[in-house]
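Subgroup meeting minutes
Present: P.N., E.W., G.H.
Scribe: E.W.

1. P.N. recapped why we're keeping a running log of single-chain structure predictions: easier to compare across weeks, and new members can see raw inputs and outputs side by side.
2. G.H. added today's entry (211 aa).
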Amino acid sequence: RYVLEQSLQGLFGWVPGLLGIGLRGLFYRLMLRMHGWAAIEHGVRLAYASNVTLGRRVYLDRGVYIHACPFGVEIGDGTLVMYGSVLHVYNFRNLPRAGIRIGRDSLIGEYNVIRGQGGVTIGDRVYTSPMVQIVAVSHVYQDPTRPFVEQGITAEGITIEDDVWIGSGAVITDAVRVGRGAVVAAGAVVTSDVPPHTVVGGVPAKILRER
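Output recorded in log:
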């Protein structure tokens, strides 16, 4: 499987323009799951592509990197993943909830980082602005007598419900749920749950008002 993945990306991954999109739409389905047609630009890198599932009309912009081991990345119908974004599930600790699931008609903005070791679920019609980080993993550091690298991690997972807008540069930390219809202001650091239909901002993020 690895040889097939590398061969297909070597043959077709660099081809620019509509020709390249057409070739990748035709041949990449040999290494990943595609429901209908998806538009994959040149320069997209896929690791463990057999664990990637793309819905209809998915768009992967140039410079996107998806690492889908072991439990996969799923991107729903009509969702766009923009330039330079990283969707990363790398899981060498056998964490049971690892994975990234993105719903329908969402937009992952430029240079986003989504780390799914603890599991990330993003709903329908969720828009993230550039430079957002959604990080479902954190280090344990409470014991000052031991190096933090010896104290393990948490990986409880992140859920972002439908119809959420996340502003540029915001950070969503592990073990957080962002409720339906919420707005996260640019630059916010979200460390606790966000109630539905609220606007939050600041470091750490606090409720600013209701919508």
